[in-house]
Amino acid sequence: MKSIVLNKNISRRIENGHPWIFSNEVNTGKERDASPQPGEIVNVLTFDKNFIGKGYYNPKSQISVRLLTRDKDVNIDDAFFHNKIKEAWEYRQKIGYSENCRLIFGEADDIPQLIIDKFNDYFVIQTLALGIDVWKPSIVKALNEIFSPKGIYERNDVPVRELEGLEQRKGFLSEPFDTNIIINENGIKFNVDIANGQKTGYFLDQQDNRKAIQHIVKGADVLGVFTYTGSFEVSAAYYGAKSVLGLDISQGAIDMCNKNAALNGLENICKFECVNAFDVLKAWSKEEKRWDVVMLDPPSFTKSRGNIDKAKAGYKEINLRGMKLVKPGGFLVTSSCTNLVQPELFLDIIAAAAKDAKRKIRQVVFNAQSADHPIIRGWENTHYLKFLIVQVL
Fold first, then answer.
1. Is 94 exposed, middle or buried (0-12, 13-18, 19+ CB in 10 A)?
2. Can you give the residue range of the structural domain that contains 8?
3. How far apart, in whole angstroms, are the C-alpha atoms of residue 153 and residue 146?
């Protein structure tokens, strides 16, 4: 196995266990083996030749090495990935996930840039870096051995792959199957479009949080904004809401919302409209329309640190407008999936929005993503979702 050597002064991030090694941390002038090929497994050594770990290498990426193990006796082979996936599944089962879950959450499961979502007996895979893409056949083999799945699908139609020199692609990694499936979450049925839905087809990271609204929506008039598939809105109706209005800018999303409401016999409670939420909320605030519960689940406002101020302003604005539509004593349910907006900053933004709205708030629930998306303290990319319920007084 070939080796790369790091600079003399490296980030404490590496010493503290983070698996990423950036290109400017690699000592290109240090005498070493012949240059490894892109995607090849390499040994990583300190400047004075002490072993750090093994990982996959890509000189074309800003992150030159992503570590898979710090044990020099561990071989990276088919058995390695089989064991990692098996361990991850055993962990999910121990914490209560048996049907639908994120089976592999990249770095948090020691397989950087690999995402595997499990929907019943179907699996969706994303290999987001060259080094893990090379091992895709081994991953598929492991899934077949451990689960005997009904189908495996690849959703690598994401721009981030291009940063690794990879093309975007999607398609079957098993025999073809009907990619429109139905899952059961918290007793509620949802359609999942594996081939064409966002990300892997459905946002499993909010499944525990959707259950958290069950008490505040009983008998309530509920407004849901950025509905996507209507999972929060249909859940609100299922948990006893008097009425539910959901908004999204995509007609395709609205069609799926109506489909999910009908699937659960809740179409008489749920109504969905295709509108620009920012414009409508501003107008409704002036008209003094009010709801018992307002739910906001916007997409990420930025993936770049250079746009963080715009993201902060966007979150403040949408939450300010949301609060103004809540009846006194009602509830605001709000989320952020922007990992660059860390929890304390998100809470500060909500507090600033409340101040400008001239409303007092008190926290009911503050959660992260569902537990099948593990968080490693200090690795901000693993702690990306913030979910907050506040009473608006």
1. exposed
2. 3-69
3. 16
Q: Which helix (H) or strand (E) holds 146?
A: helix 136-147
Cα end-to-end distance, the chain, whole Å:
63
Pair 63, 21: CB distance under 8 Å: yes
* Phi, psi of 277, deg, nearest 5: -60, -40
Same domain (yes/no): 235, 208: yes
Q: What angle do CA 342, 348, 353 make, to 5 degrees?
A: 125
229 and 211 fall within a common domain: yes
Other beta carbons within 10 Å of 60: 13
The 8-class DSSP code of residue 299 comes to P
* Band of pLDDT at residue 305, cut at 50, 70 and 90: confident
Contact call for residues 386 and 343 (beta carbons, < 8 A): yes
Long-range contacts of 178-185 (CB under 8 A, 24+ apart): 179/151, 179/153, 181/119, 181/120, 181/122, 182/263, 183/99, 183/100, 183/119, 183/120, 184/99, 184/100, 185/100, 185/210, 185/231
Instruction: Please give the helix or strand (H or E) that residue 84 lies within, else none.
Output: helix 78-94
| pTM of the predicted structure, to 2 decimals | 0.94
Answer whether 41's CB lies under 8 Å from 55's CB. Answer: yes
Q: Are the beta carbons of 157 and 182 closer than 8 angstroms?
A: no
Between CA 181 and CA 77 the distance in angstroms is 33
- The amino acid occupying position 13 is R
Facing residues of 366 across strands? 388
74-123: pLDDT as tens digits: 999 999 999 999 999 999 999 999 999 999 999 999 999 999 999 999 99
CATH number at residue 38: 2.30.130.10
Whole-number Å distance between alpha carbons of 209 and 336: 13
* Closest of 212, 174, 167, 165 to residue 194, by C-alpha: 174
Decide if 218 is inside a domain: yes
Within this chain, do residues 221 and 326 fall inside the same structural domain, yes or no?
yes
